[in-house]
Amino acid sequence: MNIxxxxxxxxxxxxxxxxxxAAGNAVLVVNVASxxxxxxxxxGLVALNRRYPGLTVVGVPCNQFMGQEPGxxxxxxxxxxxxxxxxxPLLEKTDVNGDSRxxxxxxxxxxxxxxxxxxxxxxxxxxxxxxxxGNVVARFRxxxxxxxxxxxxxxxxxLP
Length: 160
Prior knowledge:
27% of the residues lie in helices and 17% in strands.
């Protein structure tokens, strides 16, 4: 199955796919949480999404890491828009690891990071970059800031 056609649900419950959300753009998929020490990375994600018209950031709320995303869909949406001005798409709360891992993350986690390691998502704010054709071209671990030189270079390289 093409990663762009994997069925997804938006935070508001609407059926969608990455292909529909990104329509020919590069995509940065990030598992997010509102009560994490890395939550301020939302600011960098918003900045990237606004800076590059050919990029679509997609946030995937996940509560698998110490329960750091416990809110309802409405609470998550309100927190993201009010606190960080998030204007990129958010998906429904999703498992990224384990037996109930979403099919999107079953595909994404096959991609190795810069050290050659694939497998489970380590923590909130792990980032996966897809080119406009839906190929996973880079993986950045949680502590890599969205506006770091390596993320920016990878994004710029894969813009349509």
